[in-house]
Amino acid sequence: MSQFTELNDNRIYSELEQTLDKCSDKQIKSMSVHELRSFRNKIQSAEVSISVARRVAQGWLDIILLEKQKLSEPENEELVAPDMLPDLVTLLTATPGIEHEESNPRLAASLFDASNCDSDLLGLMLNILDKILVTKDMSVWFEESSQMFEETVASIASFEKELSKTRKRCHKSIDSLQDELVSRIKSGEVKVDEIIK
What we know:
The chain has one domain. The chain has helices at about 5-10, 10-20, 25-30, 35-70, 85-95, 120-130, 140-145, 145-185, 190-195. The protein contains nine helices and no strands. Helix 4 runs antiparallel to helix 5 (about 85-95), helix 4 runs parallel beside helix 6 (about 120-130) and helix 4 packs antiparallel against helix 8 (about 145-185). The model is unreliable at about 95-110 (pLDDT under 50). It is mostly helical.
C-alpha cells in the first residue's frame, strides 16, 4: 500500500477532505454562524498539523540530501560539520519524555503550539512518514543500495507535495469562511459578539 493510498483511505484524512469539499462558496453562504466558526476552527487545527508534518518531511529531505552531498564532496568545508548531523536528526526524531534506541520522525513539542493541533491527524501523517523511512541508518541507504536512497527521497518528496496541496486547500477554505463571517458583520446580519462567543 502506498503512502497516498494509506493517507486517502484513512478515516481521519477522509473526514478532512469531506470538510474541505463542503466549503464551496455556495455552501458557505448557507451555513449558520456556528457552522462557519466550527468549520474554520476545525480546518485551522488541521492546517497546523499538516504544516508540522510537512516541516518534518522537508527536514528529513534536507538531512538525507546533505549527507549524500557530504559523502560525494568530503573536501567541501562549507557543508555541515559531521558532528552537527546527529543534532539535526535528533531534533526531527525526538519524542518528548521518551527515550528511543531507534528514533522515529517526531517534532519536539516545544517547537509548536500543540493546543492548536489536530493530534490524530498529525499522528497519522507522522506514522506514514515512519513507514517511508524504513530505516534511519543513512549508511544503509548510501552503502547498500543507491536505489533505496533514490526511492526514499522520491517518496518523501511526493508525500510533502501531497501535504502541500491539502494545506493550500485548507488556506483557501479558511479564507472563504473568514470572509463570509466578516461580510455578515459588515451587512449587520450578525454582531461581532456572536462571532467571538
